[in-house]
Model the fold of this input.
Amino acid sequence: MKIAIVRLSALGDIIQSAVVLQFIKNFKKDIEIHWFVDEKFKGILKNHPLIDKLYALPLKEKHFLKSLKILIKARKNHYDAVIDLQGLVKSAVVSRILSRNNFGFDQNSLKESFAHNFYNQKLSIDYNENVFVRYLDLSAFALNADFNVKDLNFKKDIFYVDENLKQLLHKKLKLDENKKNILIHVGSSVENKIYPKTKVALLCKLIIQEFPDTKIFLAWGNVKEFEFAKDVVNLSAIDEKNIELAPKFNLEELMAFTKMMDLVIGNDSGPTHLAFALNRPSITIFGATPSYRNAYKTDINKIIDAGKKITNAKHIDKSDYCIMRIEEEDILSLAKEILDEK
Done:
């Protein structure tokens, strides 16, 4: 059996969607899986042991003709099923080009409801349902399988991590010199999902006061986040032996570094969700986005939010900065639960 999965973007969504791979392979080991992703994010899926073929489409670069040629060629694979985990019009069109036997969510289960017109088989599930439930239920629907979200508690690492790269980063950043290593992600693609720099600085100070032999690395992905991280270092007034800016990581390096961390803290964004994917302890900070939908809580993967009741995930208020109400001491309490246990 040969299937295609369509999940083009964005980073965090790809990270969370990829959990279906091990469920599918555990269901039937001989299923051949092809994955269609935007070229910008192919690094996160590169060399994945459960993906038999990876197709990178240059859609973000608006190279539509090149993308179409790739899809027409891939169509010759004669997929038994195509599963669109993204549920947008663009991903629905991609899935329809690949095969008429494509599976997606129905009209009421989508943010872009028009996408349902491109699916042959449609699943009805509340858009507000947890994303892992949605991805697993759609995959199970397509394969006539029975996937239980509770099995996430026993999942293996969702991504392949290069061991040589881990060793290089371990040596370069002298991780052995610290009793504990913490990675804090300061950014997000959406402004109101970012925990304020003054609060991040205070959180860092509280962590070092509680765990003096700890090293905090501040991760950044662009110039704006780099400046943000520099401000956090200055505002925290912590000795440089306890805090520093992480290097600019590519996706493979970010995965390797994340795998070596004792704790990852960050906003509701891809790099933070990567910790969950790699079975590393994490704290995800939520403001105006629904924590109940966008994450899965475990003994080592904690969630903190502003207590805002979000009833419709289709319509998020991007002017709502309730994330500012979250207290640094409450995040520290979660960090202590995790680090004291370790």
Notes: The first helix runs from residue 11 to 17. DSSP finds twelve helices and twelve strands in the chain. Residues 140 and 146 are 6 Å apart (CA to CA). The mean pLDDT is 97.
